[in-house]
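Bit of a strange request maybe. I'm writing a small parser for structure token strings and I need a real example to test against, not something I typed by hand. Could someone generate the tokens for this chain?
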Amino acid sequence: MASRLPDGNEQNLQQFVNQSTWDPVPVQRRICERVLPLIEPAAWVIDDVSVPKDGRMSVAVAPQY
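Reply from user aminoacidic:
Good idea to test on real output. This should exercise your parser:
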């Protein structure tokens, strides 16, 4: 994407995406519109991903929920 910008500056693109205030819903909707015809899903499942940790030597081990 950065290569398509007039100055090709990746840092500028990263700052724009990370620091600008923008609504993600239209982007998510557009992605769904483009992907749906390709994969024809029977169902959509949206879930946060977590990696369970345990043990005394693991960093930041605590109940997640």
